[in-house]
Amino acid sequence: TPEVASKSITLGNGEELRIERIQDPDHQLTGEFTKTSRACPPFCITPMTISAGVETVGELEVVAYLENAVAAGTSLLLDSRMPEWFVKGTIPGAVNVPFATLDETNPFRDEILKALGARQSGGAWDFSGAKDLLLFSNGPWSDQAPRAIRSLRSAGYPAEKIKYYRGGMQVWMLLGLTVKQPTS
Description:
two-stranded antiparallel sheet, 5 helices
């Protein structure tokens, strides 16, 4: 079904996810995600296309990605926000890989690429066994996921292995979808 009122997903590691829409018609957002204006820069509206070949997706595609690709263990949903935002709540099933850790200046970036399934041979990277990734951040005004995607692409990560959820946490919450509080 194309709609999400309630969806149960079992990940490959046995973790059970439940994504639902809040059914209270009086529910309203509070806090940071209610803002309509932010200083630009740095909080400018991001484009729909971040990098050639990287698909931009919506909420139903995120749910389908969790249900199919992440559940199969072939893919990851990456919350590219900084940890202080991640701990406030994230999309169920997301793993926190802050955008700054993917920058080429991070001395541990190569280890992160290896953890994503890339292999290094000499100075070249082989991404043939790397996970497919879907990245998001705070919303259409947040440059964190776009920066992470540009860093991955500059490292050679193939565009066809990357997807971008532009709506991010703001639109996810605006639609009343489940937000998970990370436990660690």
